[in-house]
Each structure stands twice: as structure tokens, then as C-alpha cells.
Amino acid sequence: MAEEAVVVLQGPRTVGKSVLLAELAKMAGVEVIDLDDPATAEAVSADPALVAGSAAPVCIDEYQHAPELLGAIKSELNRGLRPGRFVLTGSTRSEAVPELARYLAGRIHLLSVLPFSQGEIDGTREDLLEVLARGDFTKLTTPSVSTTTREQYIGRVVRGGFPLALARGTDAARVRWFDDYVTTVLERDVAVLAQPRQRRQLPSLLRHLASQTGQLLNISAAAEAAGLDRGTATGYLAILESVFLVRELPAWGTTLRRRSAVTPKVHLVDTGLAARLLGLTAVRLARVDPTALTELGHLLETFVVGEILKQASWLDGIARWGHWRTYDGDEVDLVVELDDGRVVAFEVRAGSRIRDKDLNSLRRLREATGEAFVAGVALYTGVRSYRAGDRLFVMPIDRLWTTVHSEPE
Predict the structure, then answer these.
(1) Distances from the Cα of 348 to the Cαs of 89, 268, 297, in angstroms?
(2) Is 214 in contact with 226 (CB distance < 8 Å)?
(3) Other C-beta atoms within 10 Å of 55: how many?
(4) Between residues 149 and 137, the one the model is more confident about
């Protein structure tokens, strides 16, 4: 706010955007204009200039319900472009609100507000990605033994990070919350973006996309299972992404090798929500049978990718991210590319042991990127951290929310 004229906080419904906005408004001595209230949204749409001209910072909650306001904000900024003028929140991705780009391109800064990270839940400072990005490996393998059990990892996966779900005292209460959440988002927020002709198929499509979480997106299979044609399902997928239920992880490094794949992966934004959509409980995931092991593997990948991307969202110097896959069988679950072209890579394993061959894909990525390869980390459910070769490390998954405490020289 000290540098940007308009700051937009965007993220799923109920992650805390409104609470954050209310705190900012209280500090500034202004009121929040809540456009989630239909009467308020109607009044603002009728006279947007009156609201845009209010004392700064103008704090507007769920701006997408009155897109007419964005034109009035542009007019106000034309009269004086100074920092800290507007703070908006939205439960719809900015790309899905064309008025935002039309009126405020080059004048807004987008910040993602996502479900709680594990460090936020536990009250720890998460700095693993930050430390890896600066190539400071001095304390990464400091002797320590993880005490997190497989059952505890499963518990974290199933509970997710939505604040209101975490506040529920029982599993049954949390399940009801997830069911109500999906209903609210599909029936209310989707209606802001479109009026799907086959909206009754949306819950089914969402469930079938959840069944692909942590895997290559197969929109044709999801469409067929939901009773939709491929084109319609593709359009509905874009809507589900716009309301922060689903995230596509693009293919990264498609020019590194001729046989690099280009198909994105799909991840649910929250693993607690994904587990509920799939009817998976902690007890079911804890079973040691092929089906449960496969389901846990996919959910755990989504969980870890989500935790790393949360860390990326609050760091400067991050250019892009994606997964790397080749038709020769190499696969790295997440590659984070820095602004200077260097990369940090992660592979996720649900097992308690990392075999040497499990690091082959990280080695081939290191070979393909050369000096740009900062570090590759295999995250697993085992207990020890250790160096596994040149710029390669093995770490327990809980290192993601354990402070490294390594400061730059």
C-alpha cells in the first residue's frame, strides 16, 4: 500500500480476506464497503463515483459483485495516482473479471490469500523455499530427526487449511462445512461469472477433477464421467479455476528437451476439500493397500505442492512455476523458477524411504539446466534430512514448516 495505488487481495471464499481488510480499515479509520451484501452492491452500482471518491484507503470487499465500480476507480486515479488509494478483495480470479484489466491494467497489484499454510497453523516461520532460492545449504541437513508420523501427515492432508473448517471440533462437523462450502461457491460465486446451461453437472465435474488431483489433467475423461462434452467441460474447468476450487499446474521447461511434455497437472486448491469430494477419511487413507496408497500419494503431492506455492506467493523474485515431465519417463513434481532463471525443484514421495533411483529425474533436470539448477529436494515421510549428491537433498515433508534459521551472509 505504500507503493501501489490499488491492491487486490484475491483467493478462495472464507480464507480470511474480509478479516484482513477489516483490520486494515480499522487501522486507517475507514469503513469496509461489503459488496457481498446484495443491497450494498446495488447501491454502489447505482452511484460508483460516490464510493470511489471516498476517503483513502477505500476498502471494498468482494469487488466482483459491482464491476461498474472499476471504471469509477479509474476515473479517480486519473485525477491523482497516489499509493494506498484502494484495497479490494475478490473471491474470483482477476482474469475472470474483464473490467479489471480494461480499467486498471498497470495500476493494480495482485496478492494471493490462500488457505492457511501448515506454518500458519503451527505458528512457525516457513523459510525453506527462501533459503533454497538463495543457495544457502549450511543448515539444510543439520542433524535432526522428524517426529511427524505417517498418520499425522494424513491428518494434516485431510483437515486442509480453510480457517472455518479447522475451527470445527469434529470430523463430522468439518465434513458438513466442506459440503456447504462447495454448494455455496457453485451456486453463488459461479453465478457471478456465468449461467452454465448444465450447472447440475458442475459438482460431478468437480469430483472427477478431484479424482485427478496430483496427476496430468485429462479433461476428456472428466467430461465423459460427468456427462458433458469436452468443450463444455473445458469451459467449466475455467470457471472452477476462477472461483479458486481447482488449480492447473502448467508444464515447465518445454523447450529444455525435445521430448518434454506440455500437458498441465491438476490440483485441488485445498486437500481437505479434495479428500471430502472423494469421500476419503484419515482412516481410509491410512490403510496399507494399493488403492489407499495411490490415493494418498496423489493427495500428498497436492498437499506439498500447495504448501510450497504458498511460500512462493509471499516471496519476491519468483518468476513462474510448473511441473517437468518428459516422454522418456522423467517427472519432477514442482519446479520453481526465479527471476534470474535459476530453478529449485521438488519431488514428493509418500514412502518413508528414498531409493537412489527415486532421484533420477532430479538428476536429469540438473543435467538439463546446468548451472541454473540451484537445488533439488526429494520430500518424503521418513525422518532424516541428508545430502544426496551435488545440489540434491532428501528431507522429511515437515521441513516445509520447520524454520531453517539460516540467514544470508
Answers:
(1) 33, 16, 8
(2) no
(3) 9
(4) 149
How are beta strands 386-389 and 392-396 bridged, if at all? antiparallel
**Can you tell me the distance from the alpha carbon of 382 to that of 385, in angstroms, rounded to the nearest whole number?**
9
- pLDDT score, position 198: 64
pTM: 0.93
CA atoms within 13 A on the CB side of 174: 25
Judge whether 112 and 362 are in contact, CB under 8 Å: no
Q: What does 156-194 look like in DSSP terms, one character per residue?
A: HHHH-S-HHHHT-SSHHHHHHHHHHHHHHIIIIIHHHH-
Report the b/e string of 14-23 with b at 16+ CB within 10 A: bbbbbeebee
At 386, phi and psi to the nearest 5?
A: -160, 155
Q: How confident is the model at residue 196 (pLDDT cuts 50, 70, 90)?
A: low
The C-alpha atoms of residue 266 and residue 302 are separated, in whole angstroms, by: 9
The dihedrals phi and psi of 395, each to the nearest 5 degrees, come to -145, 150
Is the pLDDT assigned to residue 406 strictly greater than 50?
Answer: no
Distance CA 385, CA 201 (A): 45
Looking at residue 143, its pLDDT comes to: 67
- Contact criterion met (CB below 8 Å) for 276 and 178: yes
Q: Which of 150, 115, 143, 114 is nearest to 398 (CA)?
A: 150
Residue with cell 531453517: 404
Q: What crossing angle do the helices spanning 230-242 and 202-210 adopt, rounded to 10°?
A: 80
Amino acid making up residue 209: L
Q: Are strands 373-380 and 343-348 parallel, antiparallel or unpaired?
A: parallel
pLDDT, mean of residues 22-27: 96
- Find the farthest-apart pair of alpha carbons in the chain and give their distance in angstroms, rounded: 65
Q: Quick one: how many helices (H) and strands (E) in the chain?
A: 18, 14
Average pLDDT of every residue of the chain: 92
For the stretch 367-396, pLDDT in tens is 999 999 999 999 999 999 999 999 999 999
Q: Is the pLDDT of residue 254 over 90?
A: no
365-376 residues labelled b (16+ CB within 10 A) or e (exposed)? bbebbeeebbbb
